[in-house]
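TASK: fixed-backbone design
INPUT:
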């Protein structure tokens, strides 16, 4: 298989809650089930498994490459049966930072082949993260407001990245 260009995406959201709450939403199965998946398995450690499945979108199965609590979670996805051919690793890198009393969550996706067979998958990922991040933000801020009032606004922002492999 010859090398092909790959493409990626970048999304971020500012959420008016502490970083620890966002980390929990990324790594704690009961919380993941509230905003992201219908089924999930998380082995919270480097080399552990991260599996999510949505009834309407199928599953994503990954190995946890980097696990730095409250800072970084990098997932390297395993090839799923029936997926188009690829000679690159699909990766999602979740990065957390604090900004005043809010958390900033970024996801950098990479390794998606720039071929027609991968176009629907790329579109689903690139367009899906803003929707999921909105759900996450609303859930966490609503939970936080029930505990204590939050006063910061938050927004989801998108960028497209492309690179040659």
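OUTPUT:
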């Amino acid at each position: 298989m010859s090398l092909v260009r790959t493409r990626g995406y970048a999304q971020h959201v500012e959420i008016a809650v502490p970083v620890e709450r966002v980390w929990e939403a990324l790594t704690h199965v009961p919380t993941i089930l509230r905003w992201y998946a219908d089924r999930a398995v998380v082995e919270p450690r480097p080399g552990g498994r991260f599996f999510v499945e949505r009834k309407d979108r199928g599953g994503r199965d990954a190995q946890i490459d980097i696990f730095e609590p409250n800072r970084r979670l990098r997932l390297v996805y395993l090839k799923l049966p029936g997926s188009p051919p690829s000679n690159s690793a699909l990766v999602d890198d979740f990065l957390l930072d604090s900004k005043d009393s809010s958390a900033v969550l970024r996801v950098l996706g990479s390794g998606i082949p720039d071929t027609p067979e991968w176009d629907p998958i790329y579109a689903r990922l690139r367009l899906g993260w803003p929707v999921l991040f909105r759900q996450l933000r609303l859930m966490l801020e609503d939970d936080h407001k029930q505990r204590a009032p939050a006063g910061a606004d938050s927004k989801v922002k998108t960028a497209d990245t492309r690179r040659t492999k």
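COMMENT: The chain has one domain: 6-163.
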